Amino acid sequence: MTEQNVGGDVFFLLIGAILVFAMHGGFAFLEVGTVRKKNQVNALVKIISDFALSTIAYFFIGYGIAYGIHFLATAAVLQGDVENSMFAAQGLGLVKFFFLLTFAAAIPAIVSGGIAERAKFLPQLFATALFVALVYPFFEGMIWNGNAGFQNWLESTFGAAFNDFAGSVVVHAVGGWAALGAVLMLGARRGRYPQNGKKGQAFPPSSIPWLALGSWLLCIGWFGFNVMSAQSLEGVSGLVAMNSLLAMAGGILAALFIGKCDPGFVHNGALAGLVAVCAGSNLMHPLGAFATGAIGGGIFVVFFTICQEKLKIDDVLGVWPLHGLAGAWGGIAAGIFGMEALGGLGGVSFMSQLIGTLVGCLYAFAGGLLVYGVLKYTIGIRLSEEEEFMGADLAIHHIQSEPESRLTSQQ
User: Fold this and answer.
1) What is the spatial distance between Cα 29 and Cα 205, in angstroms, rounded to a whole number?
2) CA 11, 12, 14, 19 torsion: positive or negative?
3) Cα gap 250→272, rounded to integer Å
């Protein structure tokens, strides 16, 4: 590669990393707007603390597990200035780490939304470190780096490897199914469902504007998440951008009509559409992407309702239906709408997509149960009844989101 090409790739990937990094602000405000007011500060502190800890865990352990690359070398080696260095020139390998870190850190950000309002803070940080250092990188390396021979086996058996261009399964389904394991280990919020003859209650979003801001930030950043997954200027494709746009629109419209204009469903429907299209955004025809996104939006609305009302699983932000189920659908959809017969580019196998998706979901669910199960029976993962009633803001951080307003109301 010429020096100009390398510099272009560094800048391209850096912009992608910054866009996906900004999505973590979207995760934070989506949670802030959904939880009750007494838990808003906790939502903000969790997301930024999780990102910091994810950076350290991925830098020292996770990235090496996934890609066999470690950073214990001189700055000249890391920059690629030394001859025969395993790192690309101009720090391209370092920017690639930053980009992939923002994906890895999405796992605890997704889990955070499911376990909101009743989880202890320090055990959640322990869980973050375990997920980003060990659980996530193992599957990431299998799919995106060909580790363990899984992709070779799929290709030799079914004619194509598992295609997950931007992480419908590797990131979203893994995060969503890990969150389901965490939510089941944690249990429902007190007062959420009927107990001992007492009537349960729904906890509506505390702020639709904050929720909507979170959705907008995520939608904007998602074009870095998907388009920049090419990881080079040479590989970038406008088809990925168009497919992301159409899938987002499909998710919004499906959630708008199926969810009967509920603003929470509408704003999360956009995200469900984008989750679903990640895997096959590099293969599908835009109409296939629109259908994928619309089905993803429908999956979120229907299964969020089933999860909350019938299964009585207290997944606060609905991260299992949003990321876990819509992500699983996206992995499978790539094997349907990616086929040439349906206008796609081809080179994909339905069976590979199905098997890869099932393996990712089962692996993540087991990981969520294991990590949170061990923490539950060792150091504990749940706030006390008094702390939960008080709210995580005062119980953990000793301040509310609007302390001045509280003081005024007391006076």
Assistant:
1) 12
2) positive
3) 9
Query: Which residue segments constitute the domains of the chain, with CATH numbers given?
Result: 3-403 (1.10.3430.10)
Secondary structure of residue 97 in the 3-state scheme:
helix
- CA 380 from chain centre, in angstroms, equals 25
Inter-residue contact 178 to 135 (CB < 8 Å): yes
Query: Is the pLDDT confidence value at 1 over 60?
Result: no
The amino acid present at 132, given as its one-letter code, is: V
Q: What contacts 197, CB < 8 A, 6 or more positions away?
A: none
Secondary structure, 3-state, 346-384: CCCCHHHHHHHHHHHHHHHHHHHHHHHHHHHCCCCCECC
Please tell me the distance from the alpha carbon of residue 213 to that of residue 218, in angstroms, as a whole number: 9
**Buried-exposed string 309-333: b where 16+ CB fall within 10 A, e elsewhere:** eeeebbbbbbbbbbbbbbbbbbbbb
pLDDT 10s digits, 358-406 = 999 999 999 999 999 999 999 999 999 999 999 999 999 999 998 775 5
3-state helix, strand, coil in the chain (%, to 5): 75, 0, 25
Residue range 35-61, pLDDT digits in tens: 999 999 999 999 999 999 999 999 999
Residues ≥6 apart with Cβ < 8 Å to 243: 226, 277, 280, 281, 282, 284, 286, 288, 289
In sequence order, the β-bridge partners of residue 382 are 119
- The DSSP secondary structure of 42-78, one letter per residue, reads HHHHHHHHHHHHHHHHIIIIIHHHHHS----S-HHHH
How far, in Å, CA of 319 to CA of 34, rounded? 12
pTM over 0.90: yes
